[in-house]
Amino acid sequence: MMSLSKPFTIINFIFLSNLLVSPTLTLSQCRDSCGTIPINYPFALDDGCGAPQFRHMFNCSTDLFFLTPSGSYKVQSINYDKKTIIVYDPAMSTCSILQPHHDFLMTDIQSALIPPTSDTVFALLNCSIDSPVLNHYSYLCFNFSSHSCDELYGSCNAFRVFHLAANTTSPPCCFTGYDTVKFMSMNVLDCTHYTTVTNTDGLRGIGPLDWVYGIKMSFAVPDSGCERCVQSGGTCGFDTETEGSLCLCSSSSNYTRECAVGSFTAGANGVTSSILLQAFFVIVLIYQLFCPL
Ligand SMILES: *[C@@H]1O[C@H](CO)[C@@H](O)[C@H](O)[C@H]1NC(C)=O
Ligand SMILES: *[C@@H]1O[C@H](CO)[C@@H](O)[C@H](O)[C@H]1NC(C)=O
Ligand SMILES: *[C@@H]1O[C@H](CO)[C@@H](O)[C@H](O)[C@H]1NC(C)=O
Ligand SMILES: *[C@@H]1O[C@H](CO)[C@@H](O)[C@H](O)[C@H]1NC(C)=O
Ligand SMILES: *[C@@H]1O[C@H](CO)[C@@H](O)[C@H](O)[C@H]1NC(C)=O
Fold first, then answer.
1. Ligand 3: which of 192, 193, 194, 195 to mutate, judged by most atoms within 8 Å of the beta carbon?
2. May I ask which residue range the UniProt record assigns to the signal sequence (predicted)?
3. Helix (H, G, I), strand (E, B), or coil: what is residue 164?
4. What's the pLDDT tens digit per position in 188-207?
């Protein structure tokens, strides 16, 4: 031990500083959660992370929000196995609160990549008798799991006002799918309020008070070799100029496909290489202890 030669001391210093620095650098460029909701590929909060197709769609202020042309929708949950996400429009009516309608609008890219699922039902309330869904487009309305609109008016405090006002018959209402509101604005539909109910396939025999109000959307994950990058210790991202795929390995190194495993060259601070570094450091230490020069 007394016979430590100068080169080894320098090498030790380099490895030690590398070990101390690398854990803080690793993966620090992309936030991986917002509150309690995990943010994984293809989604991201930071530009250059995730898949470019989903760029600028989320905002993590206090909570996670899904951004569309009609506003910010609070994200309730994301299921990465089933590839679904449930959002909630804080401005819409539900069984317990009556709020004036506003349109639910998505960009063309959002409609294509992350459309509402077929078990999300849009309930258009207090429609005028001239509404297209009561006339030419009446075939767009349906009853789901044996529920009718009248049940909504009857069971929900918020909607009872429609019952009372009309006295004899409640004003028309329509359960319909996303495509209807995609192609006809609420003004065209001529209904004053709306609500959305999700998981409608499982609501047979369950009353409106216990329905799940929200919009469930299904997303597709672009196939860009992300698994290979993750396995090498990186995070999937893209070049913000060209939108070409990148594997983000540390704040100082991006690779096209995967992190350069086992390369000790500048900047290769991925998880795997830092483990290899530690192993190498231990070997050097043992070598010095038992085989002094
Ligand atoms: C790596 O890519 C990210 C996302 O595009 C970018 O913000 C960062 O500056 C890049 N880092 C380097 C060293 O190129
Ligand atoms: C994020 O969402 C919140 C809540 O809707 C909003 O107030 C804020 O302006 C949004 N920020 C950005 C950058 O879009
Ligand atoms: C229901 O719709 C009519 C117009 O069709 C409107 O005058 C009325 O205020 C609406 N009811 C409520 C409670 O908003
Ligand atoms: C829905 O149910 C109500 C009440 O049971 C019924 O009057 C109405 O015709 C049904 N509508 C459709 C589209 O099946
Ligand atoms: C409802 O009808 C009853 C009797 O048919 C009538 O006395 C009452 O004034 C009506 N209420 C409204 C709000 O039209």
1. 192
2. 1-28
3. helix
4. 999 999 999 999 888 999 99
